[in-house]
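Q: Could you write out the predicted structure for this multi-component system? I'm mainly interested in how the pieces pack against one another.
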Amino acid sequence: MISKTLTLLRKELIDASRDKRSVLAGLYYAIGTPLIMCGLFMVLINQLSSPDDLPIKITNADTAPDLVRYLGQKGINNDTGEQAEKIQLIISDDYAKQMAQGKSAEVIIVADNSEEQLQKSIRRLQLALQNYSMEMGSLRLLARGIDPRVLRPLQVELHDQATQDSKGGMIMGIAIFTMLYSVFISGMNLAIDTSAGERERNSLGLLLSHPVTTGQLVLSKLLAVTAFAMLGLVLILAISHFAYPMVPWPELGFSITITPSFMATVLVIGLPVAMLAASLQLFVSFMAKTFKEAQSYLTMVMFIPLALAMSASYNIAPDVLKWLPVSGQQGALMEVIKGKALPLQELLISSGATLAITLLLALALTRMLRSEKVVFGL
Amino acid sequence: MTQRYSRWIGLLFGLGLCHALPLPAHAAEQSSKSSSCYAEGLSDQLKCGSVEVAENPKKPNGRKIHIHYVVIPAIKNLAPEEAILGIAGGPGQSAIESAASFERMLSKARQHRDILLIDQRGTGQSNKLACAGEDLTDIIKLNDDAYDSAKETRECKAKLDADVTQYGSEQALGDFEVVRKHLGYQKLHLYGVSYGTRMAQLYMRDYPQVLKTVTLDGVVPMSQSVLAIGGAIARAQELVLEDCEKDPSCQQTYPKLRTEFENVQQSLSEYPVMEKVHHPVSGKTALLTLTRNKFLGSLRLALYSPAVRSLLPFAIHQAYRKNYQPILGLLAMQDGSMDLAMGMHAAVVCGEDWPRLTPALREEAAQSVMGQMMLKAMDESCPIWGIPAVSKAFGAPISSDIPTLLLSGEKDPATPPKWAEMAMQKMTNARHLVSPYATHNVVAQSCGGDLIAKLVETDDVKAIDGECLKKDVRRSFYLNASTVEPLPEEK
């Protein structure tokens, strides 16, 4: 019984390796996604961060030399040129007069706040001006014999519970999502090929004329597709392990590292998902009449795990999602990356549900293949 | 000995108007166990803990004290076996309470390495040897000429539950090593500021093998006594007068500043001012007694911060015109801004600085008013503390080939640039950079943090480009109680 299944499995894998192009196409996802993501983030981070030395154009700079030097100390320099024109600081004509009278002097920042590249620099300029204003305010009070501490009735402290790892949680959520989703993509071509494809090549009937049970057949196909799905997962993890540390995350104030222990956790947690993916894809492909039909159905069906994982990674999900297949695993992995304990209960239930659905689909497949309509695609 | 004494002598650092008042970080109590905690002004989660050490290293089975530390974790730890150890000044400041300023100064270097802060024994959470401080009302009211520092010292000493003789720099250095080993760091990068530079130099002397780089900010050479800063204060005062004379608008506004300054001192030493004022914090009616010493003391504190320093010509001019409000404001800064552990301060200063005062140094100190004041206070209080003197060898300059960066501020009222030259006599791999505009604690006022990050990354002092220190970041002097900018010429 077992040896027959193994023989069948070997046959499936040999079949798969013969049709390298289409089957390997699935694996391109696993290789390409982390690289593309890291490339995008590199560009994005460079755009979002404010340069160490920020050139701005200051109008009326000679009215407020002390302010200009203060900004200079914060790396914000009065400059000319195209880059500097993007953020302008206009010091009002009566700046010195207002100041001398102890009033508020007007300074205007002119910039396009919708331009993402500028946002951080604009905030930086605002903050520097606020600090200057606060410092001068404090000294004005001192000069009048008043302790500046009276200006601070509240001492607000933020105790951020984020760890260095969890600060990258959003990005890690997307990364984990691409990893989990890779088990769906990587085995898909093989699943179609080994089901609808085999039927179109008329080799399925031939196979069933041998002394094998449909159960053994389904099991072997399931294992072959699962193996490919896991291969995709291993690939994406390995590439992520090297690609993610290359991105200058510290610019955003956190770091992302894919540690070997995290990779092992993903592999263990990902296995039931891979099996679910395999059974689901085989089931849908056998339901379809032709290869092409299978492809279009699967594309639609793949949307379900996509939606589940996505909503979990963006934290827009209702609570119930953490008990469901795919989203449950996604949620559990995100907790791990944030340095929290693995939510065992949720993980066990969602993994249990995953395996239960896998089993049901496998049983349904076994029954389906007993029908000639399905085997010959009538 | 009280807070008052600290106003005259403390070599403090990190004094800025925007600095929050120090409060203890909420660290764990257990020994040798770490947990997460927060420090004032810093939202990041920190790792806190403590190790148990013998109060007297020569009696390992005797009384135990806990040395507390915090680790500010690196953003992306590329060198987990290294840390940057920040050493606070004073002596008597808590490094943990200054965590936010250390983080600001070392934020570039923190990108790739942990910052380690240890409350030196006798400070902060490590068995703080504090004396009762005066509240602001007393600071304003009391006449320091009638101040009995011997009595205050005796009272404080009686209250402390510790063998004060064990709180010197060398004992504390042993604790630092215990903490380093406890946390498993193989190598340290040191950043010492003010008195912290003495601790760093001792580290270079005793444990050079664990140091990768050293940055000394506001250098106290081993051969110098921190009590010899009378001259530095006088120099910094003189620089304010000179800078004002060179600055057209300051010169125009206060043309006779120098004479006015002399006059105020003269008249205050003859007749201290006593008048009713509004309490700087509560606003209630309070009594101000202003002696010459208090006047000079309030100016001295202002010299530490470039921003507050810019208020000095105005404050002096107003005092000359009998308006003491600005001086009152400066006096208020003395409240809480320097929460020194005075017992520990005495253990260091009376053991390491006071006994080493040679007749020549005493004569030099006696040349300035502030120097005389300090000398008098120490001569009265140190015999009561009874701290044994360090050996002669203590003052030997450090020979070392560890990459060492020395930073000085030209306007420093505590550690003048020439002190750094003295300290580096026998350092073969050292560089001294002077910021022309900075006062005490250069890194907080300049691009010094970038230089440290570079040094830590490369281990090479030659790789450092000190050009950025020359950027003109001078602060203009206040021309009245509200502005620093001169009015444009009437057309």
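A: Regarding packing and overall arrangement: The longest helix of chain B spans residues 230-246.
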